[in-house]
Each structure stands twice: as C-alpha cells, then as structure tokens.
Amino acid sequence: MFYQGVRQKGDKMKKKLLYLPLALFLFLNISGCWFIVGGAVGAAGAYVVSKDTIQGDTDKPYEALWNAALTVGKIRGIVRKEDAVKGTIEMEAESSKVWIKFIRLTEATTRIRISARKYHMPNLTLAQDLYAKILEEVK
Fold first, then answer.
1. What is the pLDDT of residues 4-34, one digit of tens each?
2. Structural domain containing residue 98
3. Nearest 10 degrees: CA dihedral of 95, 113, 50, 122?
4. Domain match, 38 and 100 both
5. Domain containing residue 93: CATH number
6. What three-state secondary structure class fits 1?
7. Do 134 and 109 lie in a common domain?
C-alpha cells in the first residue's frame, strides 16, 4: 500500500517533467524569439526578432557585407532600391518583398536585419536563407 502511494507520486512527477519542455517550447514559439542554430546562421548568432525578421551581428567588413548582399539579391531576385549610405536594400524575390538593413554598431561590428513578406504574410524562411547566403558570400 505504501509502495502504491510512492508510485503514484512518482508518476505525477514524471508527468510534470514532461510538461515542462512542452511549456517552454510553446512559450518560445508564441513569443517569436528563437536563437537560430546551425550552419552560417548559428555562427553569426542570428535570431528571430519578429515573425518576418531575422537579425544578427557579425564582424565582417561593412563593404564586403554590402557587396555580398547585392550579389545575392541580384541572383535571387530583383533589387528595386539600394542606398549604401543608409545601408538599405529593397528587393523582390520568390514573390516576396525583402528589406535588408545594415547597421554599423562599432567600427568592426555590423548588424544585419532582413525582413521578408509574401502577399503581406511573413516569409521568415526566405529571410533566413538570404541571411545565410549573404554570410556565405562574404567568406
């Protein structure tokens, strides 16, 4: 009888431990704040800042990043506007509108922010892919 009570408490504890990772997953999914790991994206410490935007900081030279973004943009779609002084690129790729923004944080560090929307809906997959391709092009 004593053993059954201990076993029941142990089963309840196991259920609670199973719900903890699920609750954490749901919380991160709802908040939209994920740290992307893997490949070139993880190497640069990129993370999702909204449903359509990924950003990350890198120590690659600004000019090399700018040239890589233009190259990738022209390969993947049509570059509509570019302003090297402001650090902005507007383009269309895969039926999506894409905005690429470069922000100089320090002399050696640049923040890359890429947003993509397809038919007014977030297209985070495209933003992540462009981010990875830009960093690959710089290497």
1. 554 555 566 566 666 656 555 555 555 554 4
2. 32-138
3. 0
4. yes
5. 3.30.530.50
6. coil
7. yes
Residue with tokens 């944080």, as numbered in its chain? 105
Question: What backbone torsions phi and psi does residue 42 show, to the nearest 5 degrees?
Answer: -65, -35
Contact predicate 89/70, CB 8 Å: yes
Rounded to the nearest integer, the mean pLDDT of the chain is 80
53-58 and 110-118: which strand pairing?
antiparallel
- Distances in Å between the Cα of 26 and the Cα atoms of 13, 32, 47, 50, 53 are 20, 10, 17, 16, 20
Domain shared by 5 and 56, yes or no: no
What is the reported pTM? 0.68
Q: Which residues pair with 80 in a beta bridge?
A: none
Count how many domains the chain has. Answer: 2
If asked whether residues 75 and 133 sit together in one domain, one would say yes
Over the stretch 54-85, which tens digit does the pLDDT of each residue have?
999 999 999 999 999 999 999 999 999 999 99
Q: With cut-offs at 50, 70 and 90, classify the pLDDT of residue 38.
A: very low
In this structure, the answer to whether residues 71 and 50 fall within a common structural domain is: yes
